[in-house]
Structures are given as C-alpha cells and as structure tokens.
Amino acid sequence: MTNFQKGMSLVELMVSMLIGLFLTLGLFAMFSMSSSNVVTTSQFNQLQENGRIALALMERDITQLGFMGDITGTDFILGTNMALRDGITNDCIGAGVNNGTLPNAEPAHFRRLWGYEAGKSAESLTCLNGVNPNTDVIQIKRLIGPPVTNPNGERYYMAVNSSEAVLFKGGNPPNPALENARFWEYQHHIYFIKNDGSVPVLRRKTLTKNNGMNNEEQLVEGIENMRILYGFDNDGDDTADSFMPAENVTTLMWDNELFQRLVAVRVFLLVRAIDEDKSYTNDTTYTLGDKEIKGLNDHYRRKVVSTTMVLANPVLIRN
C-alpha cells in the first residue's frame, strides 16, 4: 500500500502569505505609532521640565530683588550712606544715569532692576551681544544671604548696618569696619536668551571680582522667548493694580519717583524642543502675556510656562 503526502496548494500558500503580510503591516503600524507616542511624550516632558527649571532659577533672584541686608528699602547715595572701596572692570551699564553694576556719584536713584526687549528698545546693556531679537532682558541687583563672616571669595561683598554700606571686593574688607555691620555677597545678574548654534539658551551674566560682568553662564536649553510684565501698585496696598511691558515703564517708574511702586513681576517663557520631529508641523499661536508669536510653521514642539513673582523686598520704602 502506497502512502501519499499532501502539501499546501498554491492558493493556500498565497492566502497564508497574504495573511502574514497583513499581520506584518499591523505590527509595523503599531510600532510606528508607539515610537511616535514615545517621541511626543518625551518632548512634552522635556518642555515641562526645562520650563520649570528656568522659572525656578529666575524666581529666587526676582523675588529677592532689592534685598540689601539691614539697609533694605533705602536708596544709596555715595558719600552719605554708601561708599565704594573697590571699583570694577568690565562694567555693565544700562539706561538711566545710575544704572551700572555699582552705584555711581550721580544724585539719582541707583537702579536695582531694569529690563528691555532686545531689538525693539532704544537702550540696551553694554555687556551683552548676540541677544536673540524680540526677547526680553532683565537685570537684578541684590545681596545674597546668609551673611558671611569671612568675605574672601571671588565675589563682591557689602558691609551693611542699618544706616550705611560699603561695597568691596572679596579679600579686601573695609577698615575700619562699620559698626555693627554684617557682610553679604553682592550680586548683579542679567537674564537673556542667546542661541548656541541652532538651540536657544537661557543665559545669565554674573559678577565676579576679577572679571566683572564678563562671565556668561548657560542655564537652560530650549528657552526660545521670554516676556516680562512689570506689576505696579497704584493705591499703596502693595498689590499690583496693572502689569505692563518694559517699553511702557517710564524713567520715573524705573526710578520709583512716582506714587506707583513695583511690587510684582510676571514671567512668560516659550520653551522649544531641542530636536525636530519631522512628523509634526507647528502652526500654533502662542500668547506670552501681551505678545503673540505665530507663523512658526516648523517641526519643533513648544510650550508656554509662566508665573507671577511677588517681590519680597521694597525697591524703595513704599509705606
């Protein structure tokens, strides 16, 4: 008796191959969708984290704006309540008659805060170059706590009591020392946006004793735009009644010579993904306070983060 072995017919083979093809296409589609979701989720997480870090770095400085130890709330007048033991190289000067890194002898308010929009404002800070156009710049001057007992670092320091202050370089404290004075680190910070290649970066200028304001730190990648609105109190209750961009803040308001007082700052950041996603086209309009950014039409994901920062210290005595 002969045994016969039957194989698959041509039709059965073609049907099985077709089914296998559909299964393979389904697997590829699932893999592609999963990969796209991973990229999207990863980029949104990156946007959120970069924005959070940038705001946190700026918030500590801005909320402590104007802190000058025991003399907080009083303006500096050289020869009366203020003395400069040491000068500065690589100064950074902004608008106004007394808006350098250190107070000068002009009989005018020493600006502890000043800002502008790069490429739009007529004035700018002398130590900056290459700032991305249509992005805001903000400078902050303050003392950094806690007080130190041995001011020998690579910074500027201020000896302060309730009525006088002496500014000096680390390692060269004033002699004789002020009565009942404490020593604090003095800092001048400037926040701005400048590209590193094609990547926008939030940067900061920082004061040191030997290099002045010629120190530039890269803080957070992907910060593409910054808009700052300044909140002024009009009725003396220390609560902001109006917020306005730097171009609407007058000289008298910067110098706190009107009844209006600066009490809060709103910061808006447009955060951009570091890498492109060619499967995504960005045609979204973004609102940064009073400013709209649209017509980007590229392949970068973006996110707006913002916060309102209440100033803990008066720039000058308000009440």
TrEMBL record:
Q: Please name the InterPro entries in this protein's record.
A: N_methyl_site, PilW
Which superkingdom, per the lineage? Bacteria
Q: By what name is this protein known?
A: Type IV pilus assembly protein
Q: Name the species this protein comes from.
A: Shewanella decolorationis S12
Taxonomic path: Bacteria, Pseudomonadati, Pseudomonadota, Gammaproteobacteria, Alteromonadales
Gene assigned in the entry: pilW
